[in-house]
Structures are given as C-alpha cells and as structure tokens.
Amino acid sequence: MTDSIAVHALDDAGYRLTEARRSIADLIAARNGHFTAADLVADARARHLEIGRATIFRTLDVLVDLQAVERLDLPTGDHAYVACERAHHHHVVCSNCGASRDIDDAGWRAVVRDIERRTGYRIDDHRLELFGVCPDCKSAG
Amino acid sequence: MTDSIAVHALDDAGYRLTEARRSIADLIAARNGHFTAADLVADARARHLEIGRATIFRTLDVLVDLQAVERLDLPTGDHAYVACERAHHHHVVCSNCGASRDIDDAGWRAVVRDIERRTGYRIDDHRLELFGVCPDCKSAG
DNA sequence: AGCAACCTGAGACTCAGTATCATCTCGGGG
DNA sequence: CCCCGAGATGATACTGAGTCTCAGGTTGCT
After folding, report:
1. Of B112, B122, B131, the CB nearest to A133
2. Quick check: A108 and B111 CB within 8 A?
3. How far is B53 from chain A (nearest CA, A)?
4. Which residue, among A38, A31, A19, has the nearest Cα to A69 in the 3D structure?
5. Is the pTM of this model over 0.90?
6. Which of A45, A64, A68, B93 would be A9's cystine partner, CB 3.0–4.6 Å?
7. Residue-level pLDDT at B139
C-alpha cells in the first residue's frame, strides 16, 4: 500500500513514521465515511494488528492537529472523524451512508462578518456541520 | 421564584411538574452562560438539593426535546447546554465568560440552499456554533 | 381520598478518553 | 553500519460522562 496523505503529513511535520502510525493511516484510508475512534480499534482488531487503544487516540489527536483528519460531532453527540486535506473547510455528511463531501466558503464568510457586526462579538472559531442525504442514497430510495 | 420558561414548556407538553424538575429549571435559570450536566449536579449539591444525577440527565434530555434548552458542543469536545426559547436558531458563545447570544437567519438559509444545489445532497439537519469574545470581555481587555 | 401512570434516586454498569510507566524502536550522528 | 537517546508504544489502571434497572415515591385525574 502506497503511503497515504496522513503518512506524508506526519513525515512533513517531523513526527516519526512508526509501524503503528502507518497502520492507523491505512485503516483510515480504507474507510470512506466518517468513523469513530472505536471503529478504528475494531478495524485494527479485525486485521489482527496489535495496536493499543491509547495509540489510536494519540494518533488521531496528532492527525487532527495536522489537519489530515477533521473531528466532527454527530447529531447524536458522538465524536467522529473524517479524512480530509485542505486547511479549513466544512463537510456535508450523509446520515444514511456516512459519505462526506467537502464544501467551500459559499458565502459563509460574509455571513460570519455580518454576525460579528450585529452582535459585537469577535468570532474566533466556529463549528459548522451539515447532515443530510447524499445523491446516491436519495436515488437508491 | 416564579416559574421559568422551562417549567411552562414541561407543563405545556404534558409532563408532570415535579419537585426535581422545578429545581432543575431554577438551577438553569440561575446560570447565565453555557453549562454542562456536571455543572448542574454540582449546583444541586451546593444548594443541598437531593436530586439524583440520572434525573438531571433525564430532565436535560426532555428540555432539549422541548427546545427549552439547546445542546452544543464546545471546541474542546465537551457537551454543554444553553437555555433558549425560540424554535431553531444558533448561538454565539463567548469563550471567555460563556455568555451566549442568539443569532437569527442572517443569510444563512440562502447559503444552505446554495450548498444543496451544488452538492446534490438534501440537507436535513445542521449544527452551527460560533465561538469568540463578547463585547464586554473585549473591552475588559 | 384513591389509584395508576409516571417519575425519582441509588447504585451498578458501560464506554470514551486520559495518565502512567516500563519497554521498545526510529532515525540522526559517529 | 551500529549506537543511543528522544520519542513512541502498549498494558494497565483510572476518571468521568452517560445509561439502565428497579423498588419505592409523587403527581394529578377522578
């Protein structure tokens, strides 16, 4: 398996390329929807990889820092992750199959500026997640 | 203490007005920023109210259902709540003092429609939270 | 007042996430 | 090519949020 984006991100940032990290990067690359830390633990076990739970959490944290992965909060309140590349953006997540798609600015920045102006708050951070049904699931009924 | 909005919401929805629920509504009314379930447990203990932990969680769930309270996810990943009234809206939360303020549509609906058109997703639900510094904390330095 | 449905508190339980620490390994320097 | 120390790992124990169960207590309708 060729090195994934996550592996390059680790390398570029000066992190060691360990066996565990490569494996976790592979597991993430093999997923396509969003996933939880527990999913990766289960995947690792299914493949008989000996990776500690703690290592999975630690690696996810690092990857979130490096923005190779983004953390999101599902409507259920669960914490999940999606693989991604660009610096800051948002996702539309299919609540049926979990497929996610990046979306760009789309006038969003203007909305934030308008809110700042009207509330007097200085907005430093935000969390924006959209949930719905993807085109495939729509047509599949 | 006069009955809070939360108490009316429970009543209107046909829930029983129990001592525990009134107390919890009071605790919520006495807070002004966002708070966690654990905060309420601590508040209850501080006031020597004998309310079970489970009851606090259950009541919060009910209040979220009734939209007397909204659940939000802080950037840290913690689950918190804010008291609120209107049906569906969003908040700007001060990351310094926790004060929150409602915001209305602000062109947001148009952004969502645009995203639907461009991605082909049908968007059913979303999560939008803004974090920053409120005017008071800004001027307080 | 009486009753049944609903609600409660206690406590046990599950599960995510974190802390600790002895051991291991990656990879830069000799 | 080997050495060696910083950095990473996995086992384990721990914390803390949230859930479940159930016997007993309240609420509100009649």
Report:
1. B122
2. yes
3. 19
4. A31
5. no
6. A68
7. 93
